[in-house]
Amino acid sequence: MEINSTQAEFLRREIKSFPGIGKRKLSVLDSELGIRYVRDLLKHYPFRYEDRTQFYLIKDLREHISSSVQLVGHLHQVQKRWVRTKDSLSAEFSDETGKISLQWWNQINWISKYLKEGRRYLIYGKPNYYKGKISIVHPEMTELKDHASPKGKIYPVYSSTQTMKRVGLSSSGLQKIIQSFLSEIHPEFETLPASLGEKYHFSQHGKALHDIHNPPNIAALNKARERLKFEEVFFMQISLLSLRRVRKENLKAHGLGMNPMVSDFLDKSLPFSLTDAQKRVINEIYSDMKSEQQMHRLLQGDVGSGKTIVAFISLLAAIGLGKQAAMMAPTEILAEQHFEVCSHWAKSLPISLSILTSSVPARERKQRWKEIKEGNIQLIIGTHALLEDNIQFHDLAVVVIDEQHRFGVWQRAKLWKKGKDKHPHVLLMTATPIPRTLSMTLYGDVDISTLDELPAGRPPLYTAHRRESARQKVESFVQTQLEQGHQAYWIYPLIEESESLDLQTIEDGFAAAQTRFPHLKIAMLHGKLPSEEKQDIMRLFIAGEIQLLISTTVIEVGIDNPRATLMIIEHANRFGLAQLHQLRGRVGRGKEKSYCILMTSSPLSEEAQKRIDTLVSHQDGFSISQVDLELRGPGDRLGTQQSGAPELKLVDLVKDQAILIAARQEAMDIIHQDPEIKDPKYQTLKEHVHALTKQAAWKYIA
Length: 702
Ligand code: ADP
Ligand code: MG
Hints:
This protein has a 7-stranded mixed beta sheet. The chain has a 7-stranded parallel beta sheet with strand order 12-13-11-14-15-10-16, with helices on both faces. A 6-stranded parallel beta sheet has the order 17-22-21-18-20-19, with helices on both faces. It is of the alpha/beta class. The chain is built from 25 helices and 22 strands. Helix 20 links the parallel strand 21 (564-569) and strand 22 (594-600). The protein is globular and about 95 Å long. It binds adenosine-5'-diphosphate and magnesium ion. Residues 272, 274-275, 278, 301, 303-309, 431, 455, 558, 560, 562, 589 line the site of adenosine-5'-diphosphate.
């Protein structure tokens, strides 16, 4: 349809190509809200509304009415007064039922020009009640013709920052700009395929935009939101599914598979028998890698579910065929540990493996680059250091990225783009499991494998909450545990405002522990230590030479010491739920019963209490992440900002499950019938999705 393409064209234009918005405003819109195109501006939806459909009579104002009200009446006795140190302005305002006073403290010269005694006004403001008198400070005033009846309206309120307000982009400043663009939007402008609009009885895109910015009534607002939510998810899904198709068709990889090295390892050197879940997941990965289409698979598994061995066995698919493999982790300690564990597993295999982190001295690093390039190193394990441009591989065929959400989409792509003529297969791993609808929504472009079973024989892990008053009991418990030969972590939070304060807190903790447990071997670990020292401490702890490790959250990701059976977390209320679950996952990895004690000293907020209770009563990561989502939404923890997909502004990933499911299903049906979205009836859809994703995901594919 003609209007659809001209309107779509309009949405794609930059707002600076229209006259009327000054340079400063344009630059603040861009820097504060990322708004450059008309479509971005029209998607800056109101964050709340003021319902100004009701009018009050002065006689009905009562103390419990504390939010803003609308009154219609006449203005009298405008007076300038000198109060304390400055001028102020007051006036009387009355309707047929009573009178109140109005007051102004700022900008009074300017305001007094607009106040005319004897005229009729519609005013809006918050009533104050004092000794039986009612007043409103700085009301909004609109002059009314004598017999005109005021129209009720639902007013949009837009979010704005200090910087924005300084250049005149307060909520009402924004509203004016948005209105001027909105007036160009035709109510019949439609972006969804006609069949969907009919099926769900949606209002058209144009109408929905008008209604969300200027709702005529609550019902229309809800209908508009419903439709715009659906389309947010729908477009995201179409783009993710297209991305996946483009990837599958265009990105060629080496066909890998079972080889003598893998079978040899599985037969002779496997350190334990794999769980059924591990076997299933390894099969899924191997069947992907057999194909010459690049694998892009996300392995989800709760802490301790045994992802590392799955990664190692996947890497062998490449190494066993004489090709190279790489594994990247977000921290040095974790990379170190992966390196040690893999070296251990690889002992009886003819593999040359090496590690690359930023603490490897420059000369040595260069030597490793050379060996990687020549193919002499077959398995390289490292941190971000693997991403350096200088690193070229001889024949990279599999890449594993552990704790993948710690990396941005560009970083992940940077690693797997290091393949030469073919792309390596990619296995992403995460210990932040999320409910299925959500993972399908956010990771719609990758295949997902789930380790839903912990290795057998894991002992129970008890979690308890203790307050400051129980500190002595906790300390004697630590003592008994350690005297029995177990090891423990004692965790202190980072209190971001001040590094020195953090250090102080943990150093005090360390000193106190040394006094309290003079016979124990105690060490302290935090981010400020030189990395060699950190690694030495970790090594000693893993080797059992250190009994009590006082640490910050540097140990959060992935560290594995099966002999540690006890963890105390200080100020547990300062941690997020997912983070506490990750931390506590460091214990309960061996054969012994384990404990996690959450200490809190201050009174807890309701939310903190809920987090702690959840942790005490739940073991598995899936149910914990469900609660976490309900408490604080997905946030950036899941990398939604970085997934390369268009941002979700309206849809609530927890509450709008039904919309998520419906929109994804519709998107799948369309991609299934018409993978390239070629049918002319999808023309508008195709243009729309393409414009949305052009800047993000498509870029690294093309
Ligand atoms: P995560 O999924 O958190 O990365 P790891 O791979 O570190 O978990 O595994 C946790 C611990 O469980 C390690 O000590 C590992 O050797 C052990 N493990 C993994 N799989 C099994 C299994 N099938 N049987 C027994 N122990 C296992
Ligand atoms: Mg791990």
